Task: inverse folding
């Protein structure tokens, strides 16, 4: 069924996600603060509005894809006051669990359905419509959102009540940040011991060290030809975004009283890497710093 969708936040992720909704036959009106994002959206067949409120006029579903919790709260506060009861709001930004729960409360107080549905899969997944969505919200809200999420993504999971999508996202990415550092340390140690990259890869990729950071995003060039290490560590998944997610995980761990010492260490290590000016590189480039090459040379 074709739906009328308001889309706020048409950046690197939101732009192609909204374009996929248009391709699937939905009517999409979008808004972004950045003129360049609006131009790209127009080229992709998205009707462009002059404000977030104008974008959602007459919409039965709204999607937001914004940088951080404060942007989502600002936009949802404006929109919730204007949308009729029963409207579906989906936030796919990666934000802190507390803000996600506040956003649900804003929507639910107006009788709107709400879902926090952060994604993994990056800009490539956004363009290809192959994102993974991790959703939190009531069963009714998830059922309403699922057909739209399936247009923009390949795997769609209902993880639990309000905030559960964000919780799943930061827990997953905390595993990823820690495991990438572990894989990088192993390659750096192997180099000092005279072990070739190929030999370590061949053994670890079929042994108990096997993980996504090794077999998909291998941080040294060669063993996995499609990993960012083979293209000068161009992201991929930028180290600054990894740092953002690790800090969200730490904020959640402190609020919940969870002990996450390796997550805390990973946040420190990526913080240092970002502070040295490498936030725009793929997060696997952390191997340079772990080898003691702070300026990022191989
Ligand atoms: P981006 O900076 O490219 O896009 C965000 C857009 O939001 C910008 O175009 C900005 O102008 C717009 N914006 C900010 N405040 C606004 C407002 N009040 N009203 C309207 N528009 C506003 O960022 P992105 O890469 O698209 O990421 C969006 C979200 O997705 C972030 O939360 C990010 O952490 C998450 N995410 C990104 C990736 C990735 O690989 N880029 C992967 C997974 C998740």
Result:
């Amino acid at each position: 069924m074709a739906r009328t969708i308001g889309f706020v936040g048409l950046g690197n992720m939101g732009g192609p996600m909204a374009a996929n909704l248009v391709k699937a036959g939905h009517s999409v009106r979008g808004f972004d603060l950045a003129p360049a994002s609006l131009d790209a959206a127009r080229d992709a067949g998205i009707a462009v509005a002059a404000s977030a409120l104008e974008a959602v006029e007459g919409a039965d579903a709204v999607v937001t894809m914004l940088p951080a919790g404060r942007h989502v709260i600002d936009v949802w506060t404006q929109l919730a006051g204007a949308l009729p009861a029963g409207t579906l709001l989906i936030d796919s930004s990666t934000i802190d669990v507390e803000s996600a729960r506040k956003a649900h409360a804003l929507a639910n107080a107006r009788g709107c359905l709400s879902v926090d549905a952060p994604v993994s899969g990056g800009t490539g997944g956004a363009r290809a419509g192959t994102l993974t969505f991790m959703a939190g919200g009531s069963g009714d809200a998830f059922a309403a959102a699922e057909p739209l999420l399936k247009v923009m993504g390949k795997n769609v999971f209902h993880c639990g009540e309000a905030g559960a999508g964000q919780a799943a996202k930061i827990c997953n990415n905390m595993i990823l940040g820690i495991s990438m550092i572990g894989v990088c340390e192993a390659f750096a140690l192997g180099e000092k011991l005279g072990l070739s990259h190929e030999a370590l890869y061949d053994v670890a990729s079929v042994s108990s060290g096997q993980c996504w950071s090794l077999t998909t995003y291998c941080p040294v060039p060669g063993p996995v030809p499609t990993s960012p290490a083979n293209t000068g560590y161009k992201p991929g998944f930028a180290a600054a975004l990894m740092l953002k997610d690790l800090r969200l995980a730490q904020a959640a761990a402190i609020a919940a009283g969870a002990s996450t010492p390796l997550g805390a260490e990973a946040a420190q290590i990526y913080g240092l890497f970002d502070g040295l000016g490498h936030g725009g590189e793929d997060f696997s480039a952390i191997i340079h710093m772990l080898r003691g090459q702070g300026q990022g040379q191989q």
Notes: Residues 8-14, 31-34, 37, 52, 65-67, 71, 74-75, 93-94, 119-120, 122-123, 237, 241, 244 surround nicotinamide-adenine-dinucleotide (CB under 6 Å). Residues 167-291 form a domain with the N-(1-d-carboxylethyl)-l-norvaline Dehydrogenase; domain 2 fold (CATH 1.10.1040.10).
